[in-house]
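Progress report, Aim 2. The chain analyzed during this reporting quarter is listed below.
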Amino acid sequence: MSTRTLGAAGTAPTVTPTPAVRRPGTLGRVLRAAALIAFALAFLFPFYYMFIGSLQAEPDTSPAGAFPTSGLTLDNYREINTEINLLRSLVNSGIFTGGVILGTVVFGLLAGYALAQLSFRGRGALFSLVLLVQVVPFQLLLIPLYVLIVRGYGLADSYLGMILPFAINTTAVFIFRQFFLQLPADLFAAARVDGASELRILWSVALPLVRPALLTVVLLTFIGPWNEFLWPFLITKQTDMQPLAVSLANYLSNVAARAANPYGAVLAGACVLAAPAVALFVAFQKHFISNNIGSGVKG
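Predicted structure tokens for the chain:
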């Protein structure tokens, strides 16, 4: 391609060639694909090794153990299910995680909408406080939280006691606030002119538009409580109330030494713990990626 520029009077226009856009050759595309495949395999190999190790009848930590040709069995899953009741532990983890996600979404929506669309004194200072809370490590609050929830409220060995410290997530508040700030202010002004209350505006106007941020918050929130160990370990003493992460830790310290294949049993429990998180991200991967792409191209 080329562009024409007008010359002086009586002279022919000059033609300036436009530099051609270089596209990667076949070799470059092959090398890039090979590099991506290599990185993908390196990322997936620990999951593969964990799954294969959970199916081995005898532990094999040598490199050859990653590619067994025989001796695969489900005995490790039966072994750990006998000791810690995988189904009950999974139910406890599901209730704990579901309660945290529900609290995070509800309080995050309300706080994010208020900080983005409502005008009140101290709004900027309150948002600064929300950001400041993110730099406080949770371990610093363990003792006062334990005293308050266990001794003050008597919520030891209860789902509510596990959920309360994680029910409000400042990261979710920040995500919802930033998303609400991108929405046109005329939408909310028109609803207020029609006499809608703020809760009605949040439910009927803002919530249908905030689904990409809602999905992002759910995905980011899920992995935290699902893998949480320290707080449920402190607050639950009854084995039938413990999430799977705590049950696996108790199995390692108390029962694993007596198992026929403790290495395989632990890997089996780790596979059970990781399976719901992997399934969730795989199921919502398409929506998650499309939401990110859409938010990047819309003006």
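The radius of gyration is 27 Å. Residues 86-117 form the longest helix (32 residues). These observations will guide the mutagenesis work planned for the next reporting period.
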